[in-house]
Amino acid sequence: MLGAPVDRLELDQFVEAISQKLKEDKACFVVTLNPEMLCCAQGQCDLMDIIKSADLVTPDGVGIVWACKMAGQPVSERVTGIDLMMKLLEHSGASGWRVFFLGSAPGVPEAAAKRAEAMFPGINIVGTQHGYFTEQENQDVLTKIAQASPDLVFVALGSPRQERWIDQNREQLGKVMLMGVGGSLDVLSGVVQRSPRWFNERNLEWLGRLLCQPSRWKRMLVLPKFVVMVYLKHRFRLCKKSKGKV
Ligand code: UDP
Asked: What is the pTM of this model?
């Protein structure tokens, strides 16, 4: 998809694939790819390389689902970061997975942990750390995570900072699942409302989020650019192909 891989799996299959990696005692880096990240990666080769190096890439956002269809490789469903995180949290108790929340404002990961403990009995949240630490404090953060010995680390530093952070530190963190989850801890903690279900069910989550957080409007400006890029790349190619056949 515009140079990035996308795994054509459903939500439960992503959970299964992550579970398998953990059973095999392997590290697992999950990228939840949305149009903003993909546009950003067009001009930044290092970000594209990071996305390519992920073990799993989910189609996060209706824009990616649409683009996959345009490319002739449809995915069966949208798999957002927050949905995958919630599903993994739901499974974590029974699977014995230890969970670490990294990122968001001070107090938010702790509040998210409390909400998760109330929602998912048996969950084991072994540590939290807010996302406003300096370069100099990074090693302390890594030590804190290593000491907590988690299986799942949810990284909520915003994209693409979180993907870059994971890439830079994944070797040191060892055999864990690392997934960038953007503003998901804000939502889980209750600090930010998830876009209303009415919008989500109609593939309009982007609009719902915009209405809940109007300050996001600038970030949405990239969406028309994304549509044009996909359209030019795939529609144009399809036209050329069908002309070739005739
Ligand atoms: N954030 C952080 N450290 C930073 C910058 C951002 O922890 O230096 C957090 C921020 O508090 C928010 C999240 O990263 O919780 C980004 O959320 P956003 O909704 O922008 O991410 P998206 O879901 O759109 O990728």
From this structure: 0.90
> How do the pLDDT tens digits run along the chain, 246 residues long?
888 999 999 999 999 999 999 999 999 999 999 999 999 998 888 999 999 999 999 999 889 999 999 888 999 899 999 999 999 999 999 999 999 999 999 999 999 999 999 999 999 999 999 999 999 999 999 999 999 999 999 999 999 999 999 999 999 999 999 999 999 999 999 998 777 777 777 777 777 777 777 777 777 778 888 888 888 887 666 555 555 443
Is the C-beta atom of 183 inside 6 A of ligand 1? yes
Residue 191 CB less than 6 A away from ligand 1? no
- Alpha-carbon distance of 105 to 108, in angstroms, equals 6
Q: Which residues of 80-115 are buried (b: 16+ CB within 10 A; e: fewer)?
A: bbbbbbbbbbbbbeebebbbbbbbbeeebbbbbbee
Strand partners, 103: 156
Going from N- to C-terminal start, the domains of the chain cover 11-245
Ligand 1 atom with least separation from CA of 162: 14
Ligand 1 mean position to 166 CA, how many Å? 14
Q: Which amino acid is at 129?
A: Q
Please give the number of the atom of ligand 1 that sits closest to the Cα of 131.
7
Nearest CA to ligand 1 atom 1: 157
